[in-house]
Amino acid sequence: LAGVVALAPVAGFAADLTIGFSQIGSESGWRAAETTVTKQQAEERGIDLKFADAQQKQENQIKAIRSFIAQGVDGILIAPVVATGWDEVLEEAKDADIPVVLLDRTVDAPEDLYLTAVTSDLVHEGNVAGQWLVDEVAGADCRIVELQGTTGSSPAIDRKTGFEQAIKGHDNLEIVRSQTGDFTRSQGKVVMESFLKAEGGANICALYAHNDDMAVGAIQAIKEAGLKPGTDIKIVSIDAVPDAHLALANGEMNATIELTPNMAGPALDAMEAYLADGTMPAKWIQTESKLYTAKDDNQAVYEMKKDLGY
Ligand code: GYE
């Protein structure tokens, strides 16, 4: 038996948690930052994080979740790409006694199928964006084009609802074109080019983008059309990624609403508490939003954010 050494278990070694994370993909700088922060949060807590990137396809997310269930993970984090189609796989996780926490988006499924959802108030973000534009144009006529997020995702649905609530009753404001740019820079540019071609740049007063990546793509299209973003066409967006602060600082964007990339902190707090002693969190853990405009010290905020993994 020479050479066979039985390693005695280290006394008092707490069993690390193993958590599966079904991430949508890396469609935006914000999403990349959320992934970075989630991995950091897991590392700090001694959690073994199993990470799966779905390239924005729901079927890949469902496959990953089933794999986590088969592995017998202690818990599952899901950023659900769209709001529907989750009931069956969430039932399977529940049957396996594996708690699920949703990050940054919600699902149209019975609440008992997930422990909690950590998201911003997506309708409120749309309200803030719309109210900012109402105040900015101060009664003047304004034809608006809208770049929607991923079709069927809760942010695309709720941010549209919130914006329309805010401009309702202000007949000088009208959304004349609205189309998905799938939360990406490339699609934001392509769709903005089509808006400019269809409407004529001189007839577009403002762009409402459901995220900064689409807004940054649109800024490129507006420039290539010989127009000044932020001046000829006002731009209001959401996320407050570093490049949005740069655009605010140089006058190419007018306002953005901050979305924290740290959804994992509150999510893992809730997950650990539940796994430790069955503590039940609220069904919705809401993160704060903050409006940034050109009046803020955007250079300083950019410097603070630029190394956070966007
Ligand atoms: O605004 C965008 C990402 O789900 C709220 O998804 C999140 C959104 C975020 O693609 O940048």
TrEMBL record:
SUPFAM superfamilies recorded: Periplasmic binding protein-like I (SSF53822)
Alphabetical list of Pfam families matching this protein: Peripla_BP_4 (PF13407)
Protein known as: Substrate-binding domain-containing protein
Primary subcellular site in the record, as a coarse category: other
Matching Gene3D superfamilies: 3.40.50.2300
Cellular component terms (Gene Ontology): cell envelope
Signal peptide coordinates: 1-14
Superkingdom to which the source organism belongs: Bacteria
Similarity comment: Belongs to the bacterial solute-binding protein 2 family.
GO terms, molecular function: carbohydrate binding
Keywords, ordered alphabetically: Signal
Subcellular location: Cell envelope
Taxonomic placement: Bacteria, Pseudomonadati, Pseudomonadota, Alphaproteobacteria, Rhodobacterales
Periplasmic binding protein domain location: 19-266
